[in-house]
Amino acid sequence: MKLLATIDKHILSYWDTAPSERLWAYLATLPVVLVAMNLLAQLIK
User: Fold this and answer.
1) 26, CA 20 to 30 Å: which among 5, 8, 9, 43?
2) Angle subtended by helix axes 2-14 and 22-44, to nearest 10
3) d(Cα 22, Cα 41) in Å, to the nearest integer?
4) Span 1-45, pLDDT tens digits
5) Membrane spanning segments where (predicted)?
6) Is 45 helix (H, G, I), strand (E, B) or coil?
């Protein structure tokens, strides 16, 4: 749980958003995560 709280804190601070705008910060971060996962899958293949 501490890891998730740290990730949450970093995402919110990166986008400089309030906790009430957490959804928008996660939606903005989602494409970056998907690209990173795709790159990792290509490297493993």
Assistant:
1) 43
2) 110
3) 28
4) 899 999 999 999 999 999 999 999 999 999 999 999 999 999 998
5) 23-44
6) coil
Q: Which residue carries 């995402």 as its tokens?
A: 11
Record the tokens describing residue 26, joined without a space. 């996660």
Place of tokens 């990730």: 7
The owner of tokens 């493993």 is 44
The token pair that represents 44 in the structure block: 């493993």
* Predicted TM-score (pTM) of this structure: 0.71
Residue 8 structure tokens? 């949450």
Beta carbons of 28 and 15 less than 8 angstroms apart: yes
What is the model's pLDDT at position 45? 82
Instruction: Show the DSSP H helices in 1-45 as ranges.
Output: 2-14, 22-44
